[in-house]
Amino acid sequence: MKTFLRCWLFLLIASPAFASGWKLVWSDEFDKPGPPDPAKWNYEAGFVRNHEAQYYTRDRRENARVENGLLIIEARKGAVQEPGV
Predict the structure, then answer these.
(1) For a Cys staple, 58 with which of 24, 43, 72, 74, CB 3.0–4.6 Å?
(2) Cβ contacts of 30 within 8 Å, gap of 6 or more
(3) Any idea what DSSP says for residue 72?
(4) Is residue 32 scored above 70 in pLDDT?
(5) How big, in percent rounded to 5, are the helix, strand and coil portions of the chain?
(6) CA–CA separation, 62 vs 74, rounded Å?
(7) Do residues 35 and 61 touch, judged by C-beta distance below 8 A?
(8) Which of 29, 10, 40 is nearest to 70 (CA)?
(9) Which pLDDT belongs to residue 29?
(10) 21 contacts 62 by C-beta, under 8 angstroms
């Protein structure tokens, strides 16, 4: 138990020293309600991942939106007609 506490204390004290060399390269503050900022976010559409039986839709507010400073990504079950079918 003492060893665990010592390690935890060391990490708590040392973390700011390690972080001082870090540089922020990208961020999004989600400060405007509505769809995610299209300059920073994009959508995949169709059956695009791992041969899954799910269809990714493009630009549907009920699936991806900003609310109260948070990015909400929501999967919904339902029938979607694949374009071109």
Answers:
(1) 43
(2) 36, 66, 69, 70, 71
(3) E
(4) yes
(5) 20, 15, 65
(6) 7
(7) yes
(8) 29
(9) 92
(10) no
